[in-house]
Amino acid sequence: MVIDQGLNYFRLDSVGKSSMGFEKPKIVSSKCIEFEPCRYNGLMIKSSIVEKLKDYAEFLPVCPEVGIGLGVPRDPIRVVESEGRLELFQPSTGKIFTDEMKQFSESFLGSISDVDGFLLKNKSPSCGVKAINIYPSFEDSRPRKDGAGLFAANVSKFFPKLPLEDEGRLRNLVIRENFLTRIFTLAKFRKAKSGDLNDLINFHTNNKLLLMAHSPYYLKIMGQTLANKDNQSIDKTKKDYQELLYKALLKDSNPALNVNVLIHAMGYFSKEIKHDEKTLFLKTITEYKEGRIPLLVCLKMLELWIIRFNEDYLASQTFFEPYPSDLMQISFI
Length: 333
Description:
Elements lengths: L25 E5 L17 H6 L4 E5 L1 H4 L10 E5 L2 E6 L4 E2 L1 H13 L6 E4 L11 E4 L8 E4 L2 H9 L5 E3 L6 H21 L3 H10 L1 H7 L1 H12 L6 H17 L4 H12 L8 H15 L5 H14 L3 H4 L18
Parallel strand pairs: 1-2, 1-6, 3-7, 6-9
Antiparallel strand pairs: 3-4, 4-5, 7-8
Helix pairs in contact: 3-4, 5-6, 7-8, 7-10, 8-9, 10-11, 10-12, 11-12
């Protein structure tokens, strides 16, 4: 079978950065989401977040089902568990495409590099990341909803440390913020690791508060790695730091960690701000922790102090804008 790998990045312009100065993440996405009408029913999926991301990212769209030779439109396929093995089955024809999907997935994923994340179609038997239907037999039966698509499962094997989400889950504000933070941080790191040790140190310095919001533990070890007391080579230092960065970003930020960072940042202004200002900020933090207001409100209060008191160190922190502000929306349809 001839496999069309389609390894051409969907480039929106020839510049490596967006108009806001962010490095463009490289994202592998399901082709049916805002790129091509190649779903089983011949339709294209609309996604506000993907449409927005087109201005700030490079996409590598792929349709694994077309990649294994299925047409558009096509009869639906499903994942069936048989004798302890997950099979990709087409009920209308009785054909099994498990081996073809394995071959395509390994060939495609083995041929790409320098990607920052994956954004796939939810509930798809090939691309679904979580909670897809798994049928207990080839006959009509009631499925359980705890599986992953066969292509998505291979993504997890080939790139276990990279962000992997589906467009449905990104409607959740917290999941979306963590995904965007990770892909844009990894894009910045790709640029930094192509330079010298000073570039890596600058990356670490500018991302200290962001990393503190994900994992204070790994932040400390990453700083020790850059100190390089063992006089390791620059390549070894970069490799070790990259592994620690992956581990740190795998830890999702949460309100408790964010509150710790907010209090830490407020300390830079403890001698300048008035008592009433501090009281209001602490009250706002409490409201955020209780889920009554978004983190963005707290960040904007700190940004006002940063401008007012010319706090250059905090002004350089990506924690306050980890991804383009156009993507900082409370909800997406």
